[in-house]
TrEMBL record, chain A:
Keyword Plastid listed: no
SUPFAM superfamilies named in the record: Periplasmic binding protein-like I
Keyword Transport on entry: yes
Source domain of life: Bacteria
Gene: braC
Designated name of the protein: Leucine-, isoleucine-, valine-, threonine-, and alanine-binding protein
TrEMBL record, chain B:
Residue stretches spanning the membrane: 12-35, 42-62, 74-95, 159-182, 218-236, 248-265, 271-289, 296-315
Source species taxonomy: Bacteria, Pseudomonadati, Planctomycetota, Planctomycetia, Planctomycetales
Keyword Protease: no
UniProt subcellular location: Cell membrane
InterPro entries attached to this UniProt entry: ABC_transp_permease, BCAA_transport_permease
GO biological process: D-alanine transmembrane transport; L-alanine transport; L-isoleucine import across plasma membrane
Annotated gene: livH_1
Membrane topology of this protein: Multi-pass membrane protein
Source organism of this protein record: Planctopirus ephydatiae
GO MF: L-isoleucine transmembrane transporter activity; L-leucine transmembrane transporter activity; L-phenylalanine transmembrane transporter activity; L-valine transmembrane transporter activity
Domain of life: Bacteria
Main location: membrane
UniProt-recorded name of the protein: High-affinity branched-chain amino acid transport system permease protein LivH
Keyword Chloroplast: no
Assigned protein family: Belongs to the binding-protein-dependent transport system permease family. LivHM subfamily.
Keywords, alphabetical: Amino-acid transport, Cell inner membrane, Cell membrane, Membrane, Transmembrane, Transmembrane helix, Transport
TrEMBL record, chain C:
The protein, known as: High-affinity branched-chain amino acid transport system permease protein LivH
GO cellular component: plasma membrane
Protein source organism: Planctopirus ephydatiae
Pfam families: BPD_transp_2 (PF02653)
Membrane topology qualifier: Multi-pass membrane protein
Source domain of life: Bacteria
Coiled-coil zones: none
Alphabetically ordered keywords of this record: Cell membrane, Membrane, Transmembrane, Transmembrane helix
């Protein structure tokens, strides 16, 4: 192809001439102008950085009449929706406690740092909270991987940390400063497996699993469900995986359909489950689906509508619970943010409130005292259930099973631990 | 058999979406020789604009904004589609004008970094509360929920249907029409000739009196319009939309880009071919082998094809001369 | 080929051991200084940022060998880093468990645990360089953006494969008694990441490795190998015509860059508050380092180092802006690219901008004058 030769040749000539022009300098010919221009740019950058630094460096250390607590979460990026929900729940709790006069007469102030859903950023955000801002306690993170990255820092510095919704058992094993307010994977997995095996309407012996392989929460729950389901005499006929955010599940669902399960366990977040349900309906899959607390959001009903009819999920609480603490929280949240709180917001709210109640009774605001007080928590009436801490700093609280009916979750049963 | 057919149909629909997005990558690459990483964000923009328009337009005809009982009149759907195309091409124009044109003479790597910057900017601006917000939403149905085909397989208990929904056909048809229009535009019109001249050699094209800047602007507008169309069709097929900064959008863009490369980047027909190949490998791999390794199939295929044919399937070999 | 890279600098004849060793010794002395002075003066948070910047510099300078010096375009650098991190992490984690019965930190500064960690980092570098060889092979056939997309594909494949790995076994007894099948699933944590790795990374080790990396890169740039690489960057065909084995140079560039990336990954894996996870191998992380090399300038080692410092500090500085953080970051990035397309220093090093009189010591004649 002669034309090809011609063009590539001439083109490279021209581009050579263009690209190489600035390179043809010898060392000594950097002109003063160039030097000035460079120093200008570098100068502007340095100025910008230092001015921002100094802006950031303004002492944020607590004055004596306030208590500063820190929250690290994914406020930007892929998982922003989870981090923002949690943050809103926490802020609601803080407003509430400040309106009631604060903790022991001191107002509470929250510092929230974004970690982009990146473990490395979580590490530096928490280091900043703990060592520079010297917060009294740390709340966060939704994702277990990020909590695991941050927990050793809190433990080392003796600052109590409460994770609102990291369900991996490893998180609180880091040390005696680390607590959580959600139940852990083994419990929820066994609750779901038990329900799938024994519920009148399901009575499944064959289950398929569709799991989000990028989320530790999902993988952990899947393992525990599988263990418990097989121990209960069932078999797993198909195991499929997707990645958080995937839109198209037809290959997995077609494959599940071919394995003819009696129940499909989907330990994922509501952001994906809606799509899965819609596509399952299109494919004519009529098997009930079952999930964990990741399903809990008003968005799920909105997205999936009646496609999820007859599907169940386990959760911390039911929106229908008539008790005032639940109804009050839902009303407050709706009043402030014009949307129904999801499970993460409720857990964030509870994490903050359990912290305040420990602070109120602790002899001092030192990390050790608060942690000791947290460990003693029994019968704390949270939105997400009555919480008592066990020896491993995990809450002991019942799970409720909800059934989706035309887009709204309805209460079905309560399963207490140890049952 | 039922499952095979079902997978095939999904692959066709998804393949045409990949092809639509890949066209944008390939056109920009053909003209400016750089990977426009912000292209996938135009898809996101198209998707979210469709949503914003839809929830505002539906109440005008007395329908519930989020869960309309019946689809809106067809002119409204078409109107939303056209508006999305127009706004997306405007966005493409602005991005090119403000971020890329000042770097026309800079090394291509810089333009690439700028593209990454633009992409980050668009994603995170889109995620602000007063723009699109950071939570996922449901796209209201704009088209009737018909099933054009419903073929039963098997009998009794294990009866299964292969379903061909209307939306898949529309995706296929609209993408096909748009690709055909693009093909005609590029190979049969004066503008197309100018465009090809610019992609051949910018400086010579300028010497021949072709307004290079205008041609490049138009390329961006066209590519962005196609991306907007892809975004619109995408959310109609998958109504649960991820928030704008979700990494899955970038992955979608990346797969479309892989499609463009597999087909031979810079080649319009190659992009279409690549789109279908990628969708087939992805769907059949996920169904017949394992869904865990979905992305692995795509990228392995890419590496394999590039090793066998370094410029992609339909790419013309680049000769070099001293 | 730019004149500055080749013509002016005097070529050193013969191996002058002192000349090679002295900068490294100085660098290590500096690292000791940083280790003992910095934390007490600026506190743990800023020390941590300095560690992060150091690791970012190691990765950016090593990527610069491929992208800046050889002119190849790799966007899979985070993949090499992750391979190094997982290798080094599993070596220290599992050996600690088997030898000391616990995965906690063992020994004090320069104690036995630290030496195991250093060896693990080097092993991480070696596995990463093997991966670099494999990924570099396509570069023999592919050019420019095609190569870039292959390296990107490598990172993505690695990410998905790492997601499928098995759970970490964190008990010495279980490991000893475990059937071989436990290890078939590669117990490095799966989606959640590899947690529990002992946290050995300190300012000293980061800056000691950084000194080695920088001096190596600098010496490489001035060596005949480096010049061959630079010639590949400038014009591959001309380089070939000059008798340079371009394939070999490209492969070498990939292997060395991957080695240092692997070491950097090893350091990262052992940093406190860091969990290495499959996500790290993805293209988003790789872009971070590509941005650093481009912002620094093609092949300019000091420029890339400065860019690495700036870009790793920027997100931290912007932390108070919460949801606007990434928006400001992106806007600044675009602004920097538009205002300085050739990078901070272009192809030059920082000392090229110093007045000439600084460059020669008063008692020593400049090589040019000597030549005269």
């Amino acid at each position: 192809m002669p034309t090809c030769f011609a063009t590539s040749d001439s083109e490279s000539c021209i581009s050579l001439a263009r690209d190489k022009a600035p390179n043809c300098l010898t060392k000594s010919t950097i002109s003063l102008r160039q030097f000035l221009r460079l120093s200008k740019v570098v100068g502007i950058l340095l100025l910008a950085v230092t001015s921002l630094m100094s802006l950031g460096c303004q002492s944020r250390v607590a004055s004596t009449d306030e208590i500063v607590i820190g929250h690290f979460g994914s406020i930007t990026g892929s998982e922003a929706t989870f981090g923002i929900s949690t943050d809103r729940g926490i802020q609601l709790a803080i407003e509430e406690v400040n309106a009631a006069g604060g903790v022991n007469g001191k107002k509470v102030r929250l510092i929230t740092y974004d970690d982009k859903g990146d473990p490395r950023e979580a590490g530096s955000a928490v280091t900043r909270l703990v060592t520079r801002d010297q917060v009294t306690a740390v709340l966060g993170e939704v994702a277990s991987g990020l909590s695991l990255a941050a927990a050793p820092i809190c433990q080392e510095n003796g600052v109590p940390m409460i994770s609102p919704s990291s369900t991996n058992p490893k998180v609180t094993q880091v040390g005696d400063m680390i607590y959580r307010v959600c139940f852990i994977d083994p419990f929820q997995g066994s609750v779901c497996a038990k329900f799938a095996r024994e519920n009148e309407k399901i009575k499944a012996t064959k289950a398929a699993i569709l799991c989000d392989q990028t989320a530790p929460y999902s993988v952990g729950l899947q393992e525990e469900f599988e263990k418990a389901f097989i121990a209960g005499g069932g078999t797993i006929v198909s195991k499929q995986a997707y990645q958080a955010g995937d839109q198209d599940f037809s290959a997995q669902l077609t494959s599940i359909r071919a394995s003819e399960p009696e129940v499909i366990f989907i330990p994922g977040y509501y952001t994906d489950v809606g799509n899965i349900a819609l596509q399952a309906k299109k494919l004519g899959l009529k098997v009930p689906m079952l999930g964990g607390d990741g399903w809990d959001s008003a968005k799920l009903g909105q997205i999936a509508g009646d496609a999820l009819n007859g599907c169940y999920y386990s959760n911390h609480y039911s929106h229908e619970d008539p008790s005032p603490r639940v109804q009050n929280f839902i009303k407050l949240y709706q009043g402030k943010y014009q949307e129904t709180p999801d499970g993460l917001a409720a857990l964030g709210y509870d994490a903050a409130r359990i912290l305040f109640s420990a602070m109120k009774t602790a002899p001092s605001l030192g990390g050790k005292d608060i942690a000791a007080e947290l460990a003693k928590t029994t019968g704390f009436e949270g939105v997400t259930g009555v919480i008592s801490m066990d020896a491993n700093r995990n809450p002991v609280k019942p799970a409720v099973i909800l059934e989706m009916k035309d887009g709204t979750p309805r209460y079905v049963a309560t399963i207490a631990p140890g049952e | 058999m039922a499952d095979f057919l079902q997978t095939l149909m999904t692959a066709l629909a998804i393949g045409s979406l990949y092809a639509l997005i890949a066209l944008g990558y390939t056109m920009v690459y053909g003209v400016l020789k750089f990977i426009n990483f912000a292209h996938s964000d135009i898809v996101v923009l198209g998707a979210w604009l469709s949503y914003s328009f839809a929830i505002r337009a539906l109440p005008l005809v007395g329908l519930d904004a989020h869960n309309p009982a019946t689809p809106p009149p067809i002119w409204m759907t078409a109107g939303i589609f056209v508006a999305v195309l127009a706004l997306c091409s405007l966005a493409g124009f602005l991005i090119e004008r403000l971020a890329y044109r000042p770097l026309r003479r800079a090394p291509r790597l810089n333009v690439l970094i700028t593209a990454i910057g633009v992409s980050l900017l668009l994603q995170n601006v889109g995620q602000l509360d007063f723009v699109f917000g950071a939570s996922p939403q449901k796209m209201p149905a704009l088209l009737p929920n018909w099933e054009l085909l419903r073929i039963p397989f098997g009998q009794g208990e294990s009866i299964r249907y292969v379903v061909l929904p209307l939306i898949d056909c529309i995706i296929f048809a609209v993408s096909g029409l748009l690709m055909l229009a693009l093909e005609l535009l590029i190979f049969r019109s004066k503008f197309g000739t100018a465009l090809r001249a610019v992609s051949f050699n910018t400086d010579f094209a300028a010497l021949m009196g072709i307004p290079v800047d205008r041609a490049i602007s138009l390329t961006f507008m066209l590519g962005s319009a196609l991306a907007g169309a892809a975004g619109f069709l995408y959310v109609l097929k998958f109504p649960s939309m991820n928030q704008p900064a979700h990494s899955v959008w970038v992955l979608l863009g990346l797969k479309a880009f892989v499609a463009a490369v597999v087909g031979g980047i810079g080649n319009v027909r190659g992009a279409v071919l690549g789109g279908f190949i990628i969708a087939f490998v992805e769907q059949f791999g996920a169904y017949y082998i394992s869904s865990n390794y979905r992305d692995v199939y795509v990228f392995s295929l890419l590496i394999l094809i590039l090793l066998i044919k370094p410029t992609g399937l339909l790419g013309s070999p680049v000769r070099e001369k001293v | 080929m730019s004149a500055s890279d080749v013509l002016i600098e005097p070529t050193s004849h013969g191996v002058n051991i002192l000349k090679s060793a002295a900068p490294i010794l100085v660098g290590i002395a500096l690292a000791v200084g940083i280790q003992f002075l910095l934390p007490s003066t600026v506190g743990p948070y800023y020390s941590r940022l300095v560690i992060d910047a150091g690791i970012a510099m190691i990765l950016a300078v090593s990527l610069n060998i491929v992208n800046g010096m050889t002119g190849q375009f790799s966007i899979g650098h985070a993949g090499f880093m992750t391979i190094g991190a997982y290798t080094a992490g599993s070596i220290t984690f599992y050996s600690s468990l088997l030898i000391w019965g616990t995965a906690a930190k063992h020994g004090s500064f320069l104690g036995s645990g630290e030496w195991m960690f250093v060896i693990a980092c080097l092993c991480g570098g070696i596995t990463a360089s093997i991966a670099g060889f494999v990924v570099g092979l396509p570069s023999l056939r592919l050019r420019g953006d095609y190569l870039a997309i292959v390296t990107l594909g490598f990172g993505e494949i690695l990410r998905v494969v790492l997601q499928q790995t098995g759970k970490v076994v964190d008990n010495a007894e279980t490991i000893r008694n475990a059937p071989l099948t436990t290890f078939a699933t590669v117990p490095v944590g799966g989606a959640i990441g590899f947690d529990g790795i002992p946290k050995y990374t300190s300012l000293f080790w980061v800056y000691a490795f950084l000194a080695i990396t920088v001096i190596f890169a600098y010496r490489l740039k001035r060596s005949s190998f480096g010049r061959a690489m630079l010639s590949v960057r400038e014009d591959e065909i001309a380089a070939q015509a000059m008798g340079i084995n371009t394939s070999r140079q490209k492969l070498l560039a990939f292997i060395t860059a991957a080695f240092f990336a692997g070491v950097g990954g090893g350091l990262l894996a052992h940093e406190s508050g860091v969990i290495i996870s499959p996500k790290d191998a993805g293209f988003q992380r790789s872009f971070d380092y590509v941005i650093m090399t481009v912002l620094g300038g093609r092949g300019s080692i000091t420029g890339v180092m400065l860019a690495a410092i700036l870009l790793s500090a920027l997100p931290e500085v912007l932390r108070d802006f919460e949801r606007y953080r990434i928006i400001i970051y992106a806007a600044l990035l675009i602004f920097m690219m538009l205002s300085r397309p050739q990078g901070l220093f272009g192809i030059h090093e920082i000392w090229d901008f110093f007045p000439k009189s600084w460059k020669t010591l008063p008692w020593k004649k400049s090589p040019r004058e000597e030549a005269r």
